[in-house]
Amino acid sequence: MARFLVSRLAGVVLILLLVCLFTFGVFFVLSPDPAVQICGKNCTPELIERIRDNLGLDEPLLTQFLTFVSGLFAGRTYGVGESATHCAAPCLGYSFQSSQPVWEMITDRLPVSVTVAVGAAVLWLLVGVVGGLVGALKRGTWWDRSAMVVALAGISIPNYVFALLLQYVLVVELEWLPFPQAVPFSEDPTRWFQNYLMPWIVLAFAYASVYARLTRANVIDTLEENYVRTARAKGLPGRLVIRRHALRPALTPVVTIFGMDFAGLLGGALITETVFGLNGVGKMTADSIARNDQPVIMGVTLLAAAFVVVGNVVVDLVYTALDPRVRVRSA
Amino acid sequence: MTTIPTEALAREEGAPSATDGAPPPGRVWRALLTDRGAALSAAYILLIVLMALFAPLIVKVSGWGPYEFDQTAIDPDLAGTPIGGWGGAGGEHWFGVEPGNGRDIFARIVYGARASMLIAISATVLTTLLGVVFGLLAGFFGGRVDWVISRVMDFLMAFPALIFMIAILSALPAGNRATLLVVVISLFGWPYLARVVRGQTMTLAQREFVEAARASGASRTAIVFREILPNLRSTIIVLTTLAVPGYIGTEAGLSFLGVGVVPPTPSWGQMIASSVNWYSVVPTYFAIPGVFLFLLVLSFTVLGDRLRAVLDREGAR
Description:
The complex is a heterodimer. By secondary structure, chain A is mainly α. Helices cover 74% and strands 2% of the residues of chain A. Chain B is mainly α. Chain B has 14 helices and two strands; from the N terminus they run ααααββαααααααααα. Chain B has a two-stranded antiparallel ribbon. In chain B, helix 10 packs antiparallel against helix 11 (220-228). The model of chain B is unreliable at 1-14 (pLDDT under 50). At the A-B interface, helix 1, helix 6, helix 7, helix 8 and helix 11 of A face helix 1, helix 7, helix 8, helix 12 and helix 13 of B.
């Protein structure tokens, strides 16, 4: 077990380093001169020179990359002498637009994104797993069919279309919900809840659909296994067969996928937050894309990758705990 | 977002198991055509393909091109809201006009189908090629080749693909966006197919008929192409069909976010993006491209599902 952990962690570090290299490559090699972009409209050649000097853009690429990576762990100092600014670890650089440290921009907006993500995750797990179970246990009935039709729609509808549709129906036509507007929980809990309700539903719909289909297929498969037949044959009541023998193996894959999906949620949050005007990390990313604010995009990319990679390790550990057959999983 | 279903579907249900030979195509076709869902889906896909192919002709019939501004169809006093109900739909403009500039929505839908289909199909071809080649290589040769390919796949699959695509696309100069989109989508898409192909190749390589071929002196190339590849046919067809909706959604999503197809070239995702500010006033503006996009993704998903069911059933015979 210890050896397994160590090798996994080494893998994580390696992958994160590769991610750094990749993002670094994309932004500093492919894109046009960052100094010109920071400089903005009232630019002089001297100013560009100073920025370049400040950011160390004249250094060889390898040196730049190493400074960048060490900045992540130990912080770094831009410029020299009086104009020097220290960027504490983890240093992701400064926004081209607002000159704020990227790390601070992300942590400021993280609570909103986490609220969206956690709420949606609870919703999709509940709806997805219950929907899938109902489908599997009442296979072929009206319940099963309608659940699967809804799930098919959920997989097929792009979430921004669903978001607009929901907003149009619930807010404009039926007026069940007020126009989305950010209100802190402490001020007005009802309004806060109403504000997050649509983002939760939108983000959860596609996932819930996938989970429902997966759960249904898994439960149906497990119910056909020999040990379930054995349990039935020895006279165990149906409900106990399902609870004791069928559920655990059927739901283990759901746990695996859940970990990965939750870690990768930032992609989904991007669109949902933009459409509903929630000021989270996703919307910030979308805005940065529009303004070509590369340090911010790069910071978010790195963070998102870190989430996914760490999420994968957690999934592996949980999986090992849940399924005794897989004590050590090979790649 | 839209990439979610791609990944999820690839993980979700995998492929039909590797069986001895694929079922005869004739029987599969017949089974699919008698299935109402599959037939309807295929019909819709065919419709969109024809629309994309004959876009210039269709637009001649409908009367308005995708880049023409019809100032008479919008009301300047109401900030450019289309005149008439349903977003200005009628005999003149079949699906109404875009608020603000009066471009014909029908023409833009027809031309938008070109962007969607072209990008989705090219990405599918490229990912299939990459996925099959690397999957076969890794599965058949094993050892060091397998190790390297598997690590690259792990690396690519470990990422939130959408954010990476956005990062790359926003960093690259605008240039030829369609090609860039295809390359970027394929770069992150091929491991999902390759992983399954690798696994099935490993199983197939142990089978008696491969051993027999080897014993009778067939070259390794011949074994891979004549013995193993034909047995992977069902898997490849099903996974590819199921991957297409993901690519369509991804293209639309990236265009929606402003890093995909560049205006004024129409794309469904981009049309939906520009409708965001008008959704409460002119709901048809987002609803029309939304419905077209939804049905296209739905059709490919249903077709893929049914295809797998048929191949599974026929394969089990």
